[in-house]
Amino acid sequence: MAKTQIFLIGATGYIGGQVLSRFLKHPIAKDAEITCLVRSAEKAPKFSQLGANVKGVVGSTADTDLLTKLASEADILISCADADDVPATQAFLAGLKQRHEKTGSVPILIHTSGTGVLTDNAAGKYATDIIYFDDNVQQIESLKPTQPHRDVDLLIVDADKQGYVKTHIILPSTIYGIASSPVVDLGLQNPHSIQIPGLIKASLDRGQGGMVGEGKNLWPNVHIDDIADLYIVLYDAIITGKAGHGREGFYFGTNGEHKLYDVGQAVAQALYDSGKGKSPDPTTFSEEEIQKYFGSAYLGSNSRCKAVRSRAIGWKPAYTTEDMLKSIKIENFFRILHRIERLNFSKLGEFKSGYGRISQNGNDDTQKLV
What domain of life (predicted)? Predict the structure, then answer.
């Protein structure tokens, strides 16, 4: 019997590497061949060390002809790269359509978007009462096409409507935690997120923990291990016919929410305790600082949601907001100082909507945002 062909985009990234590790432990691995798109010609051959059925192909999401070709050979495509890359999305959808036309089969797409699609312009001034539910089709369809990630999400839903692919969209929230996996051990995967480390980097530079506005805005959060588990739970639900797809195929990845003030306060306290901050309480970033460090007031937006559909298919996240706030003191401050020193403010200025532009095909110097 022919092996299942899996094509993974973003395997060296924070999310993609963790998802790859989960699939390597899944029973499907023994009957599958996994192809990973990798920018680095040095890293690509090392993917075979993960198993005889794993290979790296050198390329990027800008190589649209290559994306189309690799997608046309896939039974399952998992996209964990740029959530706002329309040309790349069009390219791999074209490949999946070719797959359908050639074989008559309907390939599976699991795409990574983000809860940045739900954001507003609160600028830290208030907490919204609007909460989105991933099982509420009408509510999700009410999102404006100009919202972050929405143009890509709509392309994917339309492809499902055309019938040549079954599409599923996972929307992670603020992801935290240090990734640990064989992919990390081989030096192939970036183990860190960038949102909270980016806030730490900015706070270090100004000598004080900060926030946008009054920090009253709310965001959901999820641990890297929990979000990686969602991809496996979703895959299992897909193959057993229990997963919605297309317009009914949105899956939020969240297990709690936090105020930006609380994150800023945890950062401020960690800086103060280490002698690198003036006060244990966060202060408001000036407009000049917002532009310097982030490029916009996105960190002051609201994004609220409930993972009803995700839980209905069996997802059971374990980590909570309390774990996230504790991790700022333990992981994201002391253990990644060496990492955030490599971040520069030109990259932090690429913050767009939480998840997207700063990540380019899982490059090891960038990572997924929400």
Answer: Eukaryota
